[in-house]
Write a structure and sequence with these properties.
It is built from 27 helices and 20 strands. By secondary structure, it is of the alpha+beta class. It folds into five domains: 247 residues, Rhopdopsin 7-helix transmembrane proteins, CATH 1.20.1070; 107 residues, Beta-Lactamase (2-Layer Sandwich), CATH 3.30.450.20; 172 residues, Beta-Lactamase (2-Layer Sandwich); 224 residues, Beta-Lactamase (2-Layer Sandwich), CATH 3.30.450; 153 residues, Histidine kinase-like ATPase, C-terminal domain (Heat Shock Protein 90), CATH 3.30.565.10.
Length: 993
């Protein structure tokens, strides 16, 4: 028994002697190494998914056995002292062995289960547990583990428990599938599990059964390795048999295909001969077509190139070669990108992968554009317009065809158009800036701000002439120019003025790039940077040169003709703006004068009192001309003397001296009779001025202006300046004459006002007469009729009816009393605010209650308020009142319509009823109707309106009053006369015609 156990222990290596360890670890290393080599070569040659996990797993086992074999060998040879490395190598050997088992189990789980999630989770968990055990074992290996007693420590137990748990987990997962592979792998894992359990049982007992337990445990591990090798070899054999079976089936199918193809080839051979003949004919036709296409390509004006998939030229026509500066033979077979497109227009490198042409011959992407540059043989670039179209032969992409044209001339034309557009935009910007304001300084500054970016200059100056081209005044400047250079006598400033004078003299733009630079370099002490490049253009307005526009740069740059043209155009714009600014100042001065005249005129027209008007003439003339005194004299032809009407700035004695001083009367007539005005600039030296005026009035300058109205003299105005002699300007005389003319009109209006008061009194008498007819006279007539009825009823004995008539008479008497009081009140009433015609008609209808007769329907056909004068309102309302009363009292109407309408010519007020009507042709025979209708027509004619009456017996009546549209405005109108203003009390209903 001992001999058997000893013989079995030799390969198992369980007795603890080195020779047994050599056998065990040597066999393990051979087995693991063989499996690793086979798996590694299979994975490299066939890229089998299973071998990607089995190869490292077998490798772990091989490294574990090899590591322990080297350790045992070194200890046998006493190269490594016993126990010195074992505390660290034993845990490492256990960790590598456990990792090998985990990876092998994971690989077969992946193959058996045919899914990824569970095997991956198993592998990650197993490797993590292995790493944890290794770390804990190494931490414990600081001296507590001996060479022969590692399995007696808790890290060894931890490895055993981890191995058992992981192996059991793999077995449970493998049992999900019932195949020979899952059963075989399960057997191998059970052997590993049994070996670990035996060793764990040995370590858990107090007695040492190392000889037996080690032999059994290590033997089971060796059997497990052999089982894994058997499974792997069998699986490979099965894979090989499956492959051979598939290959045999493929060979059989191939023989069938060969037989089929042989019969087909015999049939095809017959057709091939016919196709050869057809192809010969086609080749001839193709040759002819090729010659024709080649002729087309060679004579085409555009460059045409064929490029294969490697980017080399396959054909190039003469136009393309000529544009590129090559011969055709020089380009065929050469790479296209390094020749055509190696750089951009700015000479920076153009990567081939960014080239759109390369995308055509490599990826089959069509492209076109006109933003690329091609390069000639002499290394000069030119802009091109290109189209790249991929080519295909029998569905296979073979390259691209490139068609391009030299568009240098077109680009040059487009650049010129863009430059002109930019110049026009700059001119428009400057013109807009010039038109925003009439202030000269801001206008010139805005023009320079818009011009400098357009001409790419740093500084700009505008000189205006001051008495000729030799006297220039700097009016505005902008940009990088030193203030010292602009002072009188500065060298740089003299250069700026010199070129400005040259532009004004030559009447054209001039440029200079060297003289200013040399002068500045010779004189500058470094205090300022001179302008090395100067351009100047004249400012022209109405054909006259009024200044110069000068721009400059600190750089020495060439000046193109376009800049000179732009400067000339802008110079003309600025010249016109300067002239406009000057005209605006002149207009503004005139407007100020007119404003003052208007203010003075308003004061004159604010009163109708002649005395107050004369006084205001004197006061306002002093204010208008900025003088000290003024007087107005009226010459009496009968008495041959003057009379002072009004004065300002003169006391009583000075006023008397003005018209009655010693020696004044003899010379005053000449001044009074003057026409037009007389201006005395120096009163002390002018013989026309009386000596008394010089001494008493202290006159230094005098302006005499006649006041004439309606071809008669209204007086003479004397304006006195006591400060110094004064040259009266034409504007001063025009201003005071205009003011005096307005004063004459105001005086005339005052006279008219007096006349109108008399006319108003006469008109008021006529109005009272009409009102008495419409009101009192008709009421008295009505009372007479009622009394006659009472008398008839009394004579008939109808006392009750007589009393009723007397009651009506009493009511009428009360109403007449009210009307008389209202008329008296209207004569003294204060004018009320003007109201619209719509409002007055609505108020009129309120005075016709529905209980007194037929209802009245009011229709307003215009929304805009209409306003009449007080006289027009009164007359129109009285006419409408008369028409409504007639419709109610005489027509016995059941329906009455009142309509207000307006069109483009007139305003119409219509009263229409469905009463008994009458014969318009016989209205004059009826004395009662004749008088009432006469008054209605008279009232209409008085306000310029037309009265139209349409009626027939039994067909109702329509009364239409039409006022011209000029009489009715969309705004309040003042009363025409005081008499008309007194009528604002409105109509009084209650009487009839």
């Amino acid at each position: 028994m001992s001999a058997v156990l000893d013989g079995f222990s030799q390969p198992a290596g369980a007795l603890g002697i080195f020779e047994n360890g050599l056998v065990r670890y040597g066999l393990s290393a051979i087995l693991w190494g063989s499996l690793f080599i086979v798996a590694w070569f299979r994975q490299r040659d066939y890229d089998v998914a299973r071998e990607r996990l089995l190869a490292p797993a077998f490798g772990f086992g091989f490294v574990t056995s090899l590591l322990m074999l080297l350790l045992v060998t070194m200890q046998m040879l006493q190269v490594l002292p016993s126990g010195s490395a074992y505390p660290f190598l034993a845990p490492l050997q256990r960790a590598l062995g456990l990792a090998a088992i985990v990876v092998i189990a994971g690989a077969y789980l992946r193959y058996v289960l045919d899914e990824v999630r569970s095997p991956r989770a198993y592998l990650l968990a197993g490797l993590a547990v292995t790493l944890l055990c290794l770390v804990l074992a190494l931490w414990q290996a600081s001296g507590a583990v001996t060479q022969v007693r590692f399995r007696g420590t808790w890290p060894a137990w931890l490895f055993d428990l981890a191995t058992i748990s992981l192996v059991l987990s793999a077995i449970v997962l493998l049992r999900k599938e019932r195949t020979w592979l899952s059963r075989s792998v399960t057997v191998a894992l059970l052997l590993v599990l049994a070996g670990e359990i035996v060793l764990l049982a040995n370590n858990s007992t107090t007695r040492d059964y190392r000889a037996v337990a080690g032999t059994i445990g290590h033997g089971l591990n060796m059997l497990a390795i052999l089982t894994f090798a058997h499974v792997y070899a069998r699986q490979q054999a099965m894979d090989r048999r499956r492959t051979e079976k598939d290959l045999a089936a493929y060979r059989g199918r191939l023989e069938e295909l060969v037989a089929e193809r042989t019969s087909e080839l015999m049939w095809v051979n017959a057709r091939l001969q016919q196709e050869v003949r057809d192809r010969t004919q086609a080749e001839e036709v193709l040759r002819q077509l090729s010659s024709r296409y080649e002729l087309i390509l060679e004579t085409a004006g555009a460059g045409i190139c064929g490029i294969d998939r490697s980017g080399r030229f396959t054909f190039v026509n003469r136009s393309a070669a000529g544009m590129l500066g090559y011969e055709v033979d020089e380009l065929i077979g050469q790479p296209s990108h390094p020749i055509l497109h190696h750089s951009r227009a700015d000479h920076t490198a153009y990567p081939a992968e960014q080239c759109p042409i390369q995308a055509g011959y490599t990826l089959g992407i069509a492209s076109q554009g006109e933003d690329e540059y091609y390069w000639r043989k002499d290394n000069s670039a030119f802009p091109i317009q290109y189209v790249s179209s991929p080519t295909y032969e029998e569905g296979t992409h073979t390259g691209t065809v490139l068609v391009f044209r030299d568009i240098t001339d077109r680009k040059r034309a487009e650049a010129e158009i863009a430059r002109r557009t930019a110049d026009l935009a700059a001119q428009n910007t400057i013109a807009a800036a010039l038109s925003r304001s009439f202030d000269l300084d801001s206008t010139l500054a805005a023009a320079l701000d818009g011009l400098l970016p357009a001409v790419d200059m740093e500084a700009g100056l505008i000189f205006l002439g001051n008495g000729g081209a030799q006297a220039l005044l700097l009016r505005s400047y902008r940009g990088q120019v030193a203030l010292d250079d602009l002072q009188p006598g500065a060298v740089h400033g003299a250069a700026y003025q010199a070129i400005s004078r040259a532009a004004m003299t030559n009447l054209q733009a001039v440029a200079h790039s060297e003289a200013a630079a040399s002068d500045s370099q010779a004189t500058s002490n470094g205090a300022s940077q001179p302008l090395h490049t100067l351009v100047s253009a004249p400012l022209v307005s109405k054909g006259q040169v009024i200044g110069a526009l000068t721009v400059g740069s600190q750089r020495t740059v060439p000046i193109p003709a376009s800049v000179l043209a732009l400067m000339t155009a802008v110079g003309q714009q600025i010249g016109m703006a300067v002239e406009s600014s000057r005209l605006y100042r002149a207009v503004e001065s005139s407007a100020e004068m007119l404003s003052r005249l208007h203010q003075a005129s308003i004061i004159l027209t604010s009163t109708l009192d002649s005395a107050k008007i004369y006084q205001q003439i004197a006061e306002q003339s002093v204010w208008l001309l900025d003088c000290q005194a003024a007087g107005i004299l009226m010459w009496d032809e009968n008495e041959q003397r003057a009379e002072l009407i009004a004065s300002y700035g003169l006391d009583e004695a000075e006023g008397e001296t003005l018209w009655a001083g010693p020696g004044v009367s003899e010379r005053l007539r000449d001044f009074v009779a003057c026409h037009p005005s007389t201006a005395v600039s120096d009163a002390l030296a002018d013989a026309r001025v009386p000596q008394a005026w010089r001494e008493s009035l202290d006159i230094r300058a005098l302006l005499c202006v006649p006041i004439v109205g309606m071809e008669r003299s209204l007086g003479t105005l004397f304006v006195i300046d006591r400060r110094a002699r004064r040259n009266w300007r034409p504007n001063d005389q025009a201003l005071i004459e205009s003011f005096v003319n307005v004063a004459a009109i105001a005086l005339t209006n005052a006279d008219y006002h007096i006349q109108l008061q008399w006319a108003a009194a006469l008109e008021e008498r006529q109005r009272i007469a009409a009102d008495m007819h419409d009101g009192l006279a008709q009421t008295v007539a009505l009372l007479g009729l009622r009394i006659d009825e009472v008398m008839e009823l009394t004579a008939q004995g109808a006392d009750r009816e007589a009393l009723e008539r007397l009651s009506q008479v009493r009511t009428t008497v009360d109403q007449v009393s009210v009307d008389v009081r209202r008329s008296i009140a209207s004569l003294t009433a204060i004018p009320q605010p003007v109201r619209s015609l719509q409002e007055l008609l609505s108020e009129l209808l309120e005075k016709f209650p529905a209980s007194d007769g037929a209802a009245i329907d009011y229709h307003c056909q215009t929304q805009e308020p209409l306003f009449l004068t007080q006289a027009q309102q009164a007359e129109a309302l009285l006419v409408m009142q008369e028409a409504l009363l007639n419709a109610r009292r005489h027509a016995h109407a059941e329906r009455i319509d009142l309509r207000l309408g307006c069109n483009s010519q007139d305003v119409s007020i219509t009263v229409e009823d469905n009463g008994v009507g009458f014969d318009p042709g016989a209205w004059w025979t009826d004395k009662h109707n004749r008088f009432g209708l006469n008054i209605m027509h008279a009232r209409a004619a008085r306000i310029g309106a037309r009265l139209q009456i349409d009626s027939a017996p039994g067909q109702g009546t329509r009364v239409v009053l039409k006022l011209p549209l000029a009489c009715a405005e969309a705004g309040p109108q003042p009363a025409a006369t005081p008499a008309a203003a007194a009528r604002q009390a409105g109509p009084r209903p209650g009487v009839e015609t």
